[in-house]
Design a protein that fits this description.
The protein has a single domain (4-213), classed as Hypothetical protein af1432. Helix content is 57%, strand content 0%. The chain has helices at 4-21, 30-43, 51-60, 74-84, 92-100, 116-127, 131-144, 162-167, 174-178, 190-213. The protein is globular. The structure holds adenosine-5'-diphosphate and nickel (II) ion (NI). Nickel (II) ion (NI) binds at residues 28, 32, 36, 61-62, 125.
């Protein structure tokens, strides 16, 4: 259960995040963040004492994403931001900041061993990259970066570093092979695994039909 003070702080952060992500058009808009927040709460055991920490991490997880708003010093940039937002997190501030740094698939080169609260946020974030929403976000992201919709002459190689994952010229459908179809095995929570099975089937079905139709 969240205290009234915790609810107030979350509401303030919600408003700030809305302002920050309202104009974001690569698939990380405010409603991506909101889905991750809501899903994090649904994946955690009810009355989990780390719920508040997990929700703070969920709200903040894309603030200094290396694709959107890269930072050379994430901890100090967060501290400045929380001060500017007039938000007092006390002892939790450092745990929020380190939790955020554990989130992100990053081509498979992200942090694998996550702390307890961050593991639920990670599941929620990865689930939002799967299923119908994940498919739509993939093509939306590729369009936002001026990439091809599908060029049959483009060959695909699995990226071998975060740099090549970010820069490689590939078709959006290849993103299924390098990431989306692998995510099911990255999910750690019990409820997350059940949801991942459903969303994985949606991915597979779409993938097979897409390959068939562009043949
Ligand atoms: P990542 O940690 O892989 O960067 P994000 O969750 O930050 O993933 O990416 C945002 C959305 O854009 C996700 O749905 C993700 O799968 C998608 N995306 C990321 N990189 C690519 C890419 N190179 N091509 C197409 N979609 C991508
Ligand atoms: Ni995200």
């Amino acid at each position: 259960m969240l205290s009234n003070k915790q609810k107030d702080i979350l509401k303030t952060i919600d408003n700030k995040i809305f302002d920050m992500f309202d104009k974001e058009h690569t698939g990380h808009d405010y409603y991506h963040i909101k889905r991750v927040v809501d899903l994090t709460a649904r994946l955690m055991p009810s009355n989990d004492p780390e719920l508040y920490l997990a929700l703070l991490i969920a709200y903040c997880h894309d603030v200094f994403d290396d694709k959107l708003n890269p930072s050379d010093d994430i901890p100090s940039d967060f501290k400045v931001l929380f001060k500017r937002w007039n938000i007092e997190l006390g002892d939790l501030e450092d745990r929020v900041i380190s939790g955020v740094q554990e989130i992100g698939y990053k081509g498979g080169f992200g942090v694998k061993d996550k702390s307890y609260a961050a593991s639920f946020v990670s599941d929620a974030d990865l689930l939002d990259a799967m299923g119908a929403v994940g498919i739509a976000r993939t093509f939306y992201y590729a369009g936002s970066k001026g990439q091809h919709f599908h060029d049959p002459n483009l060959t695909f190689e699995m990226p071998d570093s975060l740099e090549s994952y970010r820069q490689l010229n590939r078709n959006p459908i290849d993103h299924f092979n390098e990431k989306l179809l692998l995510l099911k095995d990255w999910i750690v929570s019990d409820k997350g695994k059940i949801e991942a099975e459903k969303r994985h089937k949606v991915l597979l079905d779409f993938y097979d039909n897409f390959i068939d139709e562009v043949k």
